[in-house]
Amino acid sequence: MLSLQTAITFLGVSLLLGVTPGPDNVFVMVQSATHGRRAGWLVVLGLCTGLLVHTAAVTLGLAALFAASASAFVVLKFAGAAYLAYLAWQAYRAPVTGGDTGAALALQPRQLWLRGVIMNLTNPKVVLFFLAFLPQFVDPRRGPVAGQLLALGALFMLATLLTFGAISYFSAALGQQLRRSSRVQRWLNRVTALVFAGLALRLAVAQR
Question: In the prediction, which pLDDT does 20 show?
Answer without folding.
Answer: 82
